[in-house]
Amino acid sequence: MIEIEDLTKSYDGTVVVDHVTLTIQPHTICVVVGTSGSGKTTLMRMINKLVTPTSGTVRIDGQDIADIPAYELRRRIGYAIQGHGLFPHRTVGQNIATVPKLVGWDKARIARRVGELMELFQLDPGQFRDRLPHELSGGQQQRVGVARALAAEPNILLMDEPYGALDPVIRAKAQDDLLAIQRKFGTTVVLVTHDMEEAIHLGHTIAVMDEGKLLQCAAPAEIIANPATPFVAELIGTSERPFRLLSLSKVADHIEPGEASGEPIAAQASLRDAYAELLWSGRPALPVLRDGQIVGQVTLDALAKLAARPQ
Ligand SMILES: Nc1ncnc2c1ncn2[C@@H]1O[C@H](COP(=O)(O)OP(=O)(O)OP(=O)(O)O)[C@@H](O)[C@H]1O
């Protein structure tokens, strides 16, 4: 658990993080959103001591980080940043091995871990281990950046705009990779982004910041239904609210009996995708496909009810 209590950072008298109190539960993803300059990165960097707070405390599993040496924090907390921050003259293998080497793992264990992570991120070790970062695509570099952050098996991962530079298709894939990895390892993730869509897709909780202050921290559905301030409502995008609600659920959870006609939709698709397909194809219902079988239908009527303002 990460407990941030009354945390403030000022530079030359200008407050950039303003008395923020926030608890991040273990094994969850907390996404920090807000406009540019609202203090998101500064807040996150106080968790791994890259920035020293002016006042307030951060506790990790009950321990004040002021009492934890920086090298130990670096092992416990992975850090992935926009632009990947890879060392340009080190190979992919050497980049991923950075922290395990720092903390003194033996060679065989490091080699095993590098291989395991490369497989996990679908980078064939035979093909990619000895390449330099500039010999990779942007999406591959991004995966190496996250693999490097996870190398020493940290139980906390901090990510600062990790997908900012990726095109939408690769970005969606990278987000799904993160969700799968987070589920597999139970890592506690704090992720900073400008993108509300990304926050809703990834976050168990969303923390909204403006001018250094934390305006609201809640589950996505709660933030959409009950934004705490007009600024939070604006950030969600008033006209987007129904679609954002639909994007939170899967078709699998809203299958009805009955036989619809035409192209089926996958049970794993989001309701938002189903809604788009219903409108686009002009059908009142879509057959739902799970494990190669049609298992029922998803209907326009049901989606319209789900997208309506929560009572
Ligand atoms: N080392 C520093 N010295 C002085 N001011 C700083 C320093 N680091 C950050 N700031 C200021 O603190 C404020 C918050 O910066 P921060 O990077 O935390 O915002 P952010 O929400 O992450 O922004 P962005 O989304 O643009 O990255 C900004 O006004 C920035 O100029």
UniProtKB/TrEMBL annotation:
Record Pfam families: ABC_tran
Organism: Devosia litorisediminis
Gene3D superfamilies: P-loop containing nucleotide triphosphate hydrolases
Keywords, in A-Z order: ATP-binding, Nucleotide-binding, Transport
Domain of life according to the entry: Bacteria
GO MF terms, alphabetically ordered: ATP binding; ATP hydrolysis activity
SMART domains (UniProt xref): AAA
PROSITE patterns attached to this UniProt entry: ABC_TRANSPORTER_1, ABC_TRANSPORTER_2
Keyword Transport found: yes
Domain ABC transporter residues, every copy: 2-236
UniProt xrefs under InterPro entries: AAA+_ATPase, ABC_transporter-like_ATP-bd, ABC_transporter-like_CS, P-loop_NTPase
Name recorded for this polypeptide: ABC transporter ATP-binding protein
GO biological process: quaternary ammonium group transport
Taxonomic lineage from the root: Bacteria, Pseudomonadati, Pseudomonadota, Alphaproteobacteria, Hyphomicrobiales
The family this protein is said to belong to: Belongs to the ABC transporter superfamily.
